[in-house]
């Protein structure tokens, strides 16, 4: 194959609607690339597991230059389809490694900023109880929660955690209820893995830690700090590779690391203590300089009280 | 154990009531339909339509109560479809209901996405706020339990009372109870079987839609795909549990809400050694257990599921 | 009976024709009804009587012809809008349907008030209604417990509620479709007394019946329908049973009667058997049935006959006591075992319990023996054999249907009964339980049922005949027992009994113990 | 005024014409959302046809999606025939899939001739057992089965999640809640190379024919029909009513369980908690469209599958929101439902009648 002219034809396949935090980051990066004129972008959302393979094939048959998606529940099929369309580049979210000839993977490795938010949270909580509401206990969620907990414990060994999974990717009212329950139990800080948690925090006048996307504007005075995920480095890298005909099966996961700008940490300095922010900023620099490595721990986090 | 502590906390009961509110709308809506002899499995879709339409109306500037009206209207619309299919046309109530669920859900999603093609985060509205009534809100226990609630919760409680009154105290309620038991009794007294049934299904469906609207306008402030998440189906179960009585329906919804609120609180305690799903199962398993207990006495509307054709026996 | 030919006309049907598909259920039927007149409507099953009344009440719309009713005040005849029951109700037509139209979950009062108040009303004025009804009940003699749920009432009481429903609405024309089909003689007598009282007050009444005695006793005028056409409209005075029967059927109908025959060995016994609960429970019943006899069970409907029938057929477990058939203890058995042991049952409600409506005539004829080797091999049905035997039965029992593949629900009541008879009696059972076997059937069909039961007796079967029709019981039974509040009296030879003794017993005289009255 | 008059046996011509007309009406109605989304209607229809039938790939995809629908359709059809309202095919499907995975992922090591039948049997048995509970509750205690089966869907799905996060989780799955892959010997054969179409379709066709024969030709089928149409009369005639309900419950659950087997052993190769996009619920629709006839179920499932696959593909080709596919399926369903009425009834338009006698007077 030869180097391709921009705009490249890119399609994305999502198993959830594009509003879902995780997918929204990919959607945003691709939309930006489209606005830049690098790609023409089309997508299918809420694609059932059963239909995933067909959708992949349809896009490949349509002559897409690159197909982006999440292979989490369809690993084997996705890799098989990819192998049958060597002309198309596949960039899929996956917990596994890349495979030949054209299947690259990425993941939301923002455990680093999560650790930093944990530090802020650990030094901010007064009750020493932090509530954490997650969707499902899957690696992508667990690793961020674990990093957060580690960060908090690093600055405040007294902190206890309450952990609940609502077993749904979206049920904001339910997430909100879980958060309320934690507040009732004494949590004065919430880790908002899901939509709905920050709403509870805002309503009860306590603080929350954001995750993946920046919602500070939606909850003024509530979001203490956030670990943000940026898909742009990953997507842009892949687009370049496809355009220059140098797309290889590779693990793009590292492009979510802070060093590549794939993850970032923000704290609301009006809400966090200056000391805590300073400590986090120092740690951030250590991470960027490669002096500190945050553990990747995919096991299910448990309540510690 | 701090079980007792949980039950004694006003916040717990406030949560139970909050979780119960959409179910109260739904179960009363389902009850009205079934009392008239029509099972409405469209409920899950009608919830979704109510959630979407109500939210969208507010987002477009209709105001909160305007949104409530729009949601009710959407519910009534899908109720009318179900009513026409099942009452004069006499089609299977099961399949029409599931068809309405598919239709209402997909139409809501399609409309939402077509109207908002490029959102990466769902737009928010300013939702109903908890009613803070000076004096009452300060009452011990009752105050915080009741007055953390929004106007829609009070509307739900009012709907229960109004439904009970209409069913048991007015000629209209008498006719609805009769048409669900033996439509020819109603026809022989010069009333319209179709009119009563269609009316009941439309009104019941409008109420169901308010349950959906509560989710996007009070429990939360944005619309999400899949946010109804089986709440409609639960209402169908609660209707049987309630033996088709409004008072028991409220009780059932509250019990369910309490299970759910309890489950959420318990999970963080013992969640470390019992899988979370066990807690999530609890409300369903307990509903089944409760059904087994009430089954012997269950007093079905005898004409439920049976279409009525004039002059046919 | 005095004629009322001078009274003003209240109702007029002109040249009514009603077709179902190509079949004319009513053809060119006209009818005039005057104030205070009692008209009896006669005809075979399927003659079109119910259809005509349904047109009058607006359940059906006639294809041709129209209905006029007199204005309440001026008395001028006005056309009644077609197909609108509420218009008929407003105009003062009250109808008591053959199948009751009552909501079982509501009280009698609720059923009567239903639809009489504005639906938009926020209150219901029950006190006033109660007063009016008390007054009505006193005047007409139709007393019921207004606060009882319909599901707890007996058939007779339900019928009274139906009539009260009409009277409460100031009906001027009252239509009763086979009102006595489910009543005891006493109840029927009371009913006709009531109807006469009401007629004397000016109510015009149409009643449909297959019982010629009561038609002659209670009506002023008789109209006969045959195959949808009016074949006679004559004063009751001068009409005879024979003439009426011939008008209905078009030929004369022979009546079967019992011949003397010695009873054989003991076939079936119930010893101190109890079953069921509530007002229809059975209490320590003793019963003996011999080969070659018909044992009649008389009783007012709702006194436990249904429970007795269910217990005998294995559909309801005995809570105490014993059931023996041919020496074998079958106390804890089910319907299947009873059938296999040679027990046959003609259910009381033939539509509900006798046939599976949507299944074919052939299938309904085979249903009890579907597992027998002649009907299946290795679980697969033998269609040829089943159809062949069905065709034979259709012929032998003269079942009028469009072939063995026609859905059974399309048949008339009489023909449905023939299906039941054919499949139960063909197996030459040892015991036949016939519950209300001729209820609602016309003279021809009734005669047929009677002949079949007598044939079974002649071949040595024991027959239990549960009936509320005393004439039928007296004519067919060798011995008669009376059931009252779940207690069964000792059976006595029919020759030693007469109608009035039986009637008294049915009312509870001669019953001892905790529930019966003193002897 | 409109009146319905029953039309007894419908002619073959109508039997074919009316559903076709319904499909056309549905497509005309679908033009509304299609146009609203800014796509040329005719282009859209063309793309729809292409998406379902335009290539071997499209056609086999359609068949692949039809396979579970046939089985869940049969589950509903057989149960509804006996008036056993099984709304729980979704849960039974998952139970079947879970059992298939339990047997087929290494617990038993045997050649395909042994293992595959075991997997199929285990799936059918699990589905059947799940339905046995509500059936027994109905026959013994009179508990409403609509509600119990509906609620069990949630319980089973949670149970499956629990198993997938616990004892049955794939240790190589990086912590994802998914089962180990099925052994090759436990996998249903593919019917065509490079296509997804698998042995589940054969199971579905075979099941449809078997149930057709069961209902039409056997004593059990006779008893099922009799109990369904009039349980009281069946009891009076000495038929085993309760046993029939139990048989039907087991059979119905087994069908749904087989759907799960097909999806996991034929299509996916392992189990996740999002295996089914509501096949259990769609099965009810399929069964009713088919008028509860087992062979009709096959046709109805093919119809639903082609509408969905076609519309889904069209939405992709035109960049319209893919929620359109579900919408078109729902609209087709409602149209076909209404059309069924024209088969059963003759619809008469009657003018309000005038008063003849007053005119003559
Ligand atoms: N809804 C209907 N559809 C089709 N045919 C009907 C319908 N109702 C009645 N018929 C036909 O009209 C004929 C007359 O029925 P109808 O019920 O009036 O008889 P009937 O005189 O009341 O008989 P019975 O003495 O058995 O009550 C029947 O033979 C039947 O074929
Ligand atoms: N919907 C219908 N379609 C076709 N025929 C009907 C319908 N309704 C009633 N009939 C017919 O009307 C006739 C009279 O019916 P009906 O029920 O009055 O019978 P019956 O002899 O009075 O029996 P019973 O007194 O036990 O009810 C029968 O021929 C019946 O088949
Ligand atoms: Mg009749
Ligand atoms: Mg009759």
Automatic annotation (TrEMBL), chain B:
Which InterPro entries does the record associate with it?
A: ABC_transp_permease
GO-annotated molecular function: transmembrane transporter activity
Q: Which UniProt keywords apply?
A: Cell membrane, Membrane, Transmembrane, Transmembrane helix
Q: Where does it live in the cell?
A: Cell membrane
Q: What is this protein called?
A: ABC transporter permease
Where, by residue number, does the polypeptide cross the bilayer?
Answer: 12-32, 39-58, 64-87, 146-168, 194-216, 222-242, 278-295
Q: What organism does this protein naturally occur in?
A: Roseibium limicola
Q: How does it sit in the membrane?
A: Multi-pass membrane protein
UniProtKB/TrEMBL annotation, chain C:
What are the protein's GO molecular function terms?
ATP binding; ATP hydrolysis activity
Keyword tags:
ATP-binding, Nucleotide-binding, Repeat, Sugar transport, Transport
> Do you know which SUPFAM superfamilies this protein is assigned to?
P-loop containing nucleoside triphosphate hydrolases
Protein name, entry field: ABC transporter ATP-binding protein
Signal peptide residue numbers: none
> What family does the Swiss-Prot or TrEMBL record give for this protein?
Belongs to the ABC transporter superfamily.
Which InterPro entries does this one have? AAA+_ATPase, ABC_carbohydrate_import_ATPase, ABC_transporter-like_ATP-bd, ABC_transporter-like_CS, P-loop_NTPase
SMART domains this protein is in? AAA
Query: Which superkingdom?
Result: Bacteria
Presence of the UniProt keyword Nucleotide-binding in the record: yes
- In this protein, which residues make up the domain named ABC transporter? 11-252, 267-510
Is Transcription among this UniProt entry's keywords?
A: no
UniProtKB/TrEMBL annotation, chain D:
Report keywords, A-Z.
Cell membrane, Membrane, Transmembrane, Transmembrane helix
Q: Which GO terms describe its cellular component?
A: plasma membrane
Coarse class of the primary localization is: membrane
Species the sequence originates in: Roseibium limicola
**Molecular function GO terms recorded:** transmembrane transporter activity
Classification of source organism: Bacteria, Pseudomonadati, Pseudomonadota, Alphaproteobacteria, Hyphomicrobiales
The transmembrane segments are 12-36, 56-80, 92-108, 114-134, 146-164, 197-215, 284-311, 323-343
CDD domains (alphabetical):
TM_PBP1_transp_TpRbsC_like
What subcellular compartments does it reside in? Cell membrane
Q: What is this protein called?
A: ABC transporter permease
Keyword Iron part of the UniProt annotation:
no
Kindly give the InterPro entries that the UniProt entry links to this protein.
Answer: ABC_transp_permease, Bacilysin_exporter_BacE_put
| Protein's membrane topology | Multi-pass membrane protein
């Amino acid at each position: 194959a030869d180097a391709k002219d921009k705009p490249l034809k890119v399609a994305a396949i999502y198993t959830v609607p594009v509003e879902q935090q995780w997918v929204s980051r990919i959607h945003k990066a691709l939309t930006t690339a489209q606005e830049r004129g690098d790609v023409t972008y089309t997508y299918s959302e809420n694609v059932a597991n059963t239909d995933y393979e067909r959708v992949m094939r349809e896009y490949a048959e349509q002559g897409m230059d690159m197909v982006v998606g999440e292979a989490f529940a369809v690993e084997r099929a996705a890799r098989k389809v990819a192998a049958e369309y060597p002309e198309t580049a596949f960039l899929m979210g996956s917990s596994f490694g890349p495979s030949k000839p054209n299947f690259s993977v990425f993941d939301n490795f923002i455990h680093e900023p999560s650790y930093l938010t944990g530090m802020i949270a650990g030094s901010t909580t007064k009750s020493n109880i932090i509530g954490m509401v997650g969707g499902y206990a899957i690696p992508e969620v667990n690793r961020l929660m674990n990093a957060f907990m580690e960060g908090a414990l690093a600055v405040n060994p007294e902190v206890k955690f309450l952990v609940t999974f609502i077993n749904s990717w979206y049920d904001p009212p339910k997430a909100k209820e879980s958060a309320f329950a934690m507040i009732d139990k004494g949590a004065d800080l919430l880790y908002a893995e899901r939509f709905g948690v920050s709403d509870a925090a805002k309503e009860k006048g306590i603080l929350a830690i954001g995750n993946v996307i920046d919602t500070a504007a939606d909850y003024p005075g509530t979001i203490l700090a956030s670990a943000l995920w940026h898909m742009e480095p990953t997507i842009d890298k892949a687009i370049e590779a496809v355009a220059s005909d140098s797309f290889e099966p590779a693990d793009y996961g590292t492009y979510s690391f802070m060093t590549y700008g794939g993850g970032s940490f923000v704290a609301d300095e009006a809400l966090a203590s200056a000391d805590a922010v300073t400590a986090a900023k120092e740690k951030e620099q250590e991470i960027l300089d490669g002096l500190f490595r945050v553990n990747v721990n995919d096991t299910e986090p448990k309540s510690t009280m | 154990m701090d079980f007792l502590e949980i039950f004694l906390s006003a916040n717990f009961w406030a949560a139970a009531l909050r979780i119960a509110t959409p179910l109260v709308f739904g179960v009363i809506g389902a009850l009205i339909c079934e009392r008239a002899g029509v099972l409405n499995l469209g409920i899950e879709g009608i919830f979704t339509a109510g959630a979407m339409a109500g939210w969208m109306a507010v987002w477009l500037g209709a105001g909160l109560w305007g949104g409530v009206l729009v949601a009710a209207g959407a519910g009534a619309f899908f109720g009318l479809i179900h009513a026409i299919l099942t009452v004069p046309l006499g089609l299977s109530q099961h399949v029409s209901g599931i068809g309405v669920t598919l239709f209402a859900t997909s139409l809501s999603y399609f409309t939402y996405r077509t109207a908002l093609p490029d959102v990466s985060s769902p737009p928010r509205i300013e939702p109903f706020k908890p009613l803070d009534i000076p004096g009452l809100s300060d009452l011990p226990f009752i105050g915080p339990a009741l007055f953390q609630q929004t106007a829609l919760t009070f509307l739900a409680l009012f709907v229960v009372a109004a439904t009970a009154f209409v069913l048991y105290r007015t000629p209209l309620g008498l006719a609805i109870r009769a048409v669900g038991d033996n439509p020819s009794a109603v026809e022989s007294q010069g009333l319209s079987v179709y009119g009563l049934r269609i009316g009941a299904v439309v009104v019941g469906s409008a109420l169901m839609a308010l349950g959906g609207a509560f989710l996007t306008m009070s429990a939360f402030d944005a619309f999400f795909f899949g946010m109804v998440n089986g709440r409609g189906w639960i209402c169908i179960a609660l209707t049987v549990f309630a033996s088709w009585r409004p008072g028991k329906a409220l009780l059932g919804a509250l019990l369910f809400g309490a299970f759910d609120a309890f489950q959420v609180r318990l999970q963080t305690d013992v969640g470390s050694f019992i899988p979370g799903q066990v807690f999530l199962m609890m409300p369903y398993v307990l509903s089944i257990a409760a059904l087994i207990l009430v089954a012997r006495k269950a007093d079905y509307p005898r004409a439920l599921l049976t279409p009525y054709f004039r002059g046919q026996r | 009976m005095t004629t009322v030919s001078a009274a003003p006309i209240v109702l007029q049907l002109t040249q009514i024709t009603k077709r179902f598909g190509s079949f004319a259920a009513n053809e060119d039927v006209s009818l005039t009804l005057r104030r205070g007149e009692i008209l009896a409507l006669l005809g075979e099953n399927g003659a079109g009587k119910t259809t005509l009344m349904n047109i009058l009440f607006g359940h059906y719309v006639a294809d041709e012809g129209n209905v006029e009713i007199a204005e309440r005040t001026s008395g001028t005849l006005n056309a009644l809008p077609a197909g609108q029951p509420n218009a008929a109700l407003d105009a003062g037509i009250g109808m008591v349907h053959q199948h009751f139209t009552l909501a079982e979950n509501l009280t009698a009062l609720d059923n009567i008030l239903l639809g009489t108040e504005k639906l938009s009303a926020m209150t219901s004025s029950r006190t006033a209604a109660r007063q009016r009804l008390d007054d009505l009940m006193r005047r007409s003699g139709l007393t019921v417990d207004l606060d009882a749920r319909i599901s707890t009432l007996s058939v007779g009481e339900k019928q009274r509620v139906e009539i009260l429903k009409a009277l409460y609405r100031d009906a001027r024309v009252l239509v009763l479709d086979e009102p006595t089909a489910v009543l005891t003689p006493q109840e029927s007598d009371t009913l006709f007394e009531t109807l006469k009282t009401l007629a004397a007050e000016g109510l015009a009444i149409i009643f449909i019946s297959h019982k010629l005695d009561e038609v002659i006793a209670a009506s002023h005028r008789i109209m006969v329908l045959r195959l949808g056409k009016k074949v006679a409209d004559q004063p009751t005075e001068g009409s005879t049973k024979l003439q009426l029967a011939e008008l209905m059927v078009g030929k004369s109908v022979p009546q079967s009667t019992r011949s003397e025959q010695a009873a054989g060995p003991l076939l079936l016994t119930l010893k101190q058997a109890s079953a069921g609960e509530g007002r229809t429970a059975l209490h320590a019943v003793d019963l003996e049935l011999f080969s070659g006899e018909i044992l009649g069970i008389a009783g007012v409907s709702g006194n436990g006959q249904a429970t007795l029938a269910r217990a005998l057929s294995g559909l309801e477990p005995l809570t105490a006591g014993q059931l023996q058939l041919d020496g074998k203890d079958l106390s804890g058995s089910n319907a299947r075992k009873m059938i296999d042991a040679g027990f046959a049952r003609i259910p009381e409600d033939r539509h509900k319990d006798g046939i599976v409506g949507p299944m074919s005539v052939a299938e309904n004829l085979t249903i009890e023996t579907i597992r027998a080797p002649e009907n299946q091999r290795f679980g697969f049905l033998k269609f040829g054999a089943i159809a062949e035997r069905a065709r034979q039965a259709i012929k032998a029992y003269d079942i009028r249907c469009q072939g063995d593949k026609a859905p059974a629900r399309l048949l008339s009541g009489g023909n449905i009964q023939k299906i039941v008879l054919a499949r139960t009696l063909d197996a030459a059972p040892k015991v036949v339980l016939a519950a209300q076997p001729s209820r609602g059937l016309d003279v021809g069909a009734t005669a047929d049922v009677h002949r079949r039961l007598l044939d079974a007796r002649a071949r040595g079967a024991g027959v239990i005949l549960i009936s509320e029709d005393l004439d039928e019981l007296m004519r067919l039974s060798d011995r008669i027992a009376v059931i009252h509040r779940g207690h069964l009296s000792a059976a006595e030879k029919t020759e030693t009994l007469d109608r009035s003794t039986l009637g008294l017993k049915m009312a509870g005289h001669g019953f001892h113990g905790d529930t019966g009255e003193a002897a | 005024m409109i009146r319905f008059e029953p039309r007894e046996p419908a002619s073959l011509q109508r039997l074919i014409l009316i559903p076709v007309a319904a499909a056309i009406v549905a497509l005309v109605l679908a033009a509304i959302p299609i146009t609203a989304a800014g796509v040329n209607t005719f282009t859209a229809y063309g793309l729809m046809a292409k998406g379902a039938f335009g290539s071997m790939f499209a056609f086999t995809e359609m068949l692949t999606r039809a396979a579970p629908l046939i089985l869940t359709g049969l589950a509903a059809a057989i149960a509804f025939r006996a008036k056993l309202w099984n709304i729980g095919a979704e849960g039974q499907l998952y139970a079947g899939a879970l059992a298939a995975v339990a047997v087929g992922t290494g617990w038993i090591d045997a050649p395909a001739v042994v293992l595959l039948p075991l997997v199929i049997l285990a799936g059918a048995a699990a589905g059947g057992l799940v339905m046995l509970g509500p059936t027994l509750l109905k026959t013994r205690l009179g508990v409403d089965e609509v509600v119990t089966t509906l609620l069990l869907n949630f319980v089973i799905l949670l149970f499956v999640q629990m198993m997938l996060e616990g004892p049955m989780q794939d240790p190589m799955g990086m912590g994802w809640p998914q089962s180990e892959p099925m052994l090759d010997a436990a996998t249903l054969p593919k019917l065509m190379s490079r296509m997804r179409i698998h042995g589940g379709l054969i199971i579905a066709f075979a099941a449809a024919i078997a149930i057709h024969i069961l209902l039409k030709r056997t004593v059990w089928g006779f008893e099922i029909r009799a109990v369904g149409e009039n349980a009281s009369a069946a009891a009076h005639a000495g038929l085993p009513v309760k046993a029939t309900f139990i048989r039907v419950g087991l059979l119905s659950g087994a069908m749904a369980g087989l759907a799960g087997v097909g999806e996991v052993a034929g299509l996916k190769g392992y189990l996740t908690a999002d295996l089914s996009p509501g096949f259990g619920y769609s099965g009810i629709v399929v069964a009713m469209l088919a008028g509860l006839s087992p062979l009709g179920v096959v046709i109805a499932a093919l119809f639903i599958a082609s509408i969905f696959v076609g519309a889904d593909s069209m939405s992709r080709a035109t960049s319209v929101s893919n929620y359109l596919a579900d919408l078109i399926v729902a609209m087709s369903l409602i149209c076909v439902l209404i059309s069924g009425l024209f088969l059963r009834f003759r619809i008469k338009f009657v003018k309000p009648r005038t008063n003849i006698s007053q005119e003559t007077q």
